[in-house]
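Standup notes
- DV: blocked on the single-chain target, sequence here:
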Amino acid sequence: MKAIIQRVTSASVTVCDECVSSIGRGLCVLVGISTDDNANDVDWLARKLLNIRLFEEPATGKRWMQSVSDQQLEILCVSQFTLYHRMKGNRPDFSRAMQGPQAQELYGTLLQKLREQYTADRIKDGVFGAMMQVHIQNDGPVTLEIESPPQTDQERQKLQRSQGRKAQVKDLQTAPAGGE
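- DV (later): unblocked, structure below
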């Protein structure tokens, strides 16, 4: 997963001339999901977004000392498949970006993780797949690009086994009683 992180004094998302989300001081994060991404990438990105030190210490004014969670600020996430592009001549190719429902599921999982690990009402987002206008007031300006590290085959296999076990447990829990 790739993220463009911008420290902002304010940010909002508008769809069809209607503001659907807005935040005050915090982070505006453009999130790209590649065809290789999975739950491990979601965990990595959620942890980074909540802990990356982009803010100054209020008491001392020392820079790069506190995270969004340290200062109880907000995060506005915006899905952005164009982050996984490559140029073919003068035309962008988005074949490295994960498509529709699968990408929406991982993006939703990222939002869920952020809300569980932080404060739910401080995590906002746009409208997945919609044509959006993102308005930001960049603070600094501070803009960083981060990307989850590639995973080994062993890590991918471990995740697949774990997901398989979770699916089996879910199937057992939803099976009708008495073998009907």
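- Follow-up: Helices lie at 39-51, 100-117, 153-174.
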